[in-house]
Amino acid sequence: HRCYDEQDLGWIRWLKMLRNSGMSIEMIREFVQLSQQGNDSIEARCQILDAHRQKIRATISELEGYLHLLDQKLLFYRGLEDG
Known about the structure:
This protein starts with 5 loop residues before the first helix and ends with a helix. It has 3 helices and no strands. It is an all-alpha fold.
């Protein structure tokens, strides 16, 4: 059995969030490698996170568009039900 401390668990949660939010395993590996380099890699890590943030924002925007179309279709169908 391996024992994890709070710092390990924090890293695991952080990496899981990155993966669940769509970051590729390759980019996660790069981020981890940069993190192991210490403060000299902060700018590179920020660039990775900024790029990922932009991708998430684009996905949210696209999904909001889909949600709007679904809402419009539901209004249409409910109008037909009401006669």
